[in-house]
Input
Amino acid sequence: VRCLAGELNQAFLNLIVNAAHAIGDAVRDRPGSLGTIHISTHGDGDFAEIRIRDTGTGIPEHIRSKIFDPFFTTKPVGVGTGQGLAIVYSVIVEKHRGTLELISEVGKGTTFVIRLPFVPEQEG
Output
């Protein structure tokens, strides 16, 4: 995969930080429980696939269409900027011509599926 490594690292970090916040909120509601973040990768035909899954609070259906919008946040004033997922979208979809899929269930967690195109050797 041809990539802008620093920007891709920032996108992954933003997803992991959001996952950690969602887990923090979830374990607060379930004393004694622990959360997990699971990251997996594999090649899928013409794409490298990266999955970042958490056992956090999940994302409610009614806000899913807004989460990649700049300045959208569910956090209290002063806690988040609402830029994290907008940056993720920009880096993955706009700059790397990849795809970004959201799978989420409230109370169970969220998975972000990132697919980045492989570049043939002669183009790389």
